[in-house]
Amino acid sequence: MLLRLEGRGLFNSAAIVARADRKEAVELAKDLSDYLNSKKMPVFLEQTLAKRLGRPEAALTLEKTRTDLVITIGGDGTILRTCLRLPKPEPPILAINMGVRGFLAEVPPKEGITAVEKCLKGEFTLEPSSRLKRSLCHFTCPS
Hints:
There is one protein chain. This protein is an alpha/beta fold. It is built from four helices and nine strands; from the N terminus they run E-E-H-E-H-E-E-H-E-H-E-E-E. It has a single domain (about 1-130), classed as Probable inorganic polyphosphate/atp-NAD kinase, domain 1 (Rossmann fold), CATH 3.40.50.10330. It has helices at about 25-40, 45-55, 75-85, 110-120; strands at about 1-5, 15-20, 45, 60, 70-75, 95, 125, 135, 140. The strands form three sheets. A five-stranded parallel beta sheet has the order 4-3-2-5-6, sandwiched between helices. Strands 1-7 form a two-stranded antiparallel sheet. The two termini are about 15 Å apart. The relative contact order is 0.24.
C-alpha cells in the first residue's frame, strides 16, 4: 500500500529503507530518523542503512518489521524490493523518490520531512496497490 498525502491516520513507529549506495538518500534517511526521534517515535532502520549511519541499535530486518509505517528513500526498485521483504499484512509505505523515473514514488526529496509531518498529522490517503503472482517451471516467485 502506498501513501498518497491527504487523509487520516496515526503512526506509533516507523521503519526507514534507503538506497545505501546513494549519499543523498543516506543523508535524508538520517534527517528523517532524527526528525521522528525528536517526536519520540521509535525508528528502525534497514540493516545496511543502520550500519552506514552507525546506528546498529536501530537495525531491523525487513522480514521482521512490525512498524506502523515504512518510509522508502530511493526509486521504484527500492519500493518493490521492500514490498517483497515485508511481512503480511504490510504497513503503509511512504515513498520518497531518489530514483530516475519515480512511477511509484511521488514525494520529491526536498519534501520528505514535510510529507512525514503530514503523515503524523493524519493528512494522507491510503492508495492500495495490486501485486502480481508469478511462477516459473513450477517455482512460485515471491509476491
